[in-house]
Amino acid sequence: MAVAAKQRKRTNPSPPTSVVAEARRGGRRAAPVRWDTVKSILGAFVIFLFIRTFLVEAFHIPSGSMEPTLLVGDFLFVNKAIYGANIPFTHINLPAFADPKRGSIAVYMSPDARDGHPIVVKRLVGIPGDTLYMRNAVLYVNGIAQRQGFSTGPELTTPDLTSPDFDWQKRVALTNSRFGPPPAQPTRDNWGPLVVPPRHYFSLGDNRDDSKDARFYGFVPRENLRGKPMFIYLSIDFDDWSLRWNRIGKVIH
Predict the structure, then answer these.
(1) How far apart are CA 225 and CA 216, in angstroms?
(2) Cα separation of 68 and 206, whole Å?
(3) Structural contact between residues 124 and 108, judged by C-beta atoms closer than 8 angstroms
(4) Start-to-end Cα distance in the chain
(5) Tens of pLDDT along 26-71?
(6) Which of 22, 35, 65, 223 is most buried, most CB within 10 Å of its CB?
């Protein structure tokens, strides 16, 4: 009988754990985080960073300097790879697929240190080797009068502007050329002739009467270029907080 009792004791199941004891041990264990899920999230984040850093980035228009081509409240996708994407926290750019053409719109880091080198968008009206000058707000490239912006006609819409910001031009203006002498004091609408140096560009806003561009801070170095706008993916009129449906999807030229 003693042997049978010992056998029964060994085969009896362990008593159920009480609710109180379970609570004291912290309750049910949380389901372990699956490593596959973590890897998927990390992988998606790395892909996002790669695309944003080296391929495509969103950009919004904060001012009217490019009207009517680009309006305040336009949100753009910018092709960063075409001119050679910048490696973050360095002055190194990856190899470019193309060089900017005269007349193309570009996003670039402003050379003006006083403004903290903001990222701006302007039209590149001069490429390396071009001779540029402006007379009575008419732009000349290599002696040929150009279209007067993309918003104004040849008539002056505001008085000419004089500023010490234009004095940098005195150091580089051509004093003897077939295009005539430079003005004694460069102004917003009368300056040059200037020759765009190698690996530099000259920019103007389409709204030339209200644009801080290369006339103010000088030539734009090639390494400052950050990309070429592709199309508008969203446009908001902040005056009445409405969508500009007719601008969404518009390709930028």
Answers:
(1) 18
(2) 7
(3) no
(4) 100
(5) 555 555 668 888 877 887 777 766 666 667 999 999 999 999 999 9
(6) 65
CA–CA gap between residue 86 and residue 224 (Å, rounded): 9
Q: How far apart are CA 112 and CA 86, in angstroms?
A: 18
Helix residue ranges, H only, 103-213: 169-172
CA dihedral in degrees (97, 99, 103, 104; nearest 10)?
30
Instruction: Report yes or no on 9 lying in a domain.
Output: no
Q: Encode pLDDT of 189-228 as tens digits.
A: 999 999 999 999 999 999 999 999 999 999 999 999 999 9
8 A C-beta contact, residue 103 and residue 92: no
Residue 207 forms part of a structural domain: yes
CA–CA distance, 76 with 99 (Å, rounded to integer) = 20
Banded model confidence at residue 1, pLDDT cuts 50, 70, 90: very low
Tell me which residues are annotated as active site.
65, 122
Is residue 42 assigned to a domain? no
Instruction: Name the residue range of residue 140's domain.
Output: 58-247
DSSP state of 93: B
The Cα 216–Cα 120 span in angstroms is 14
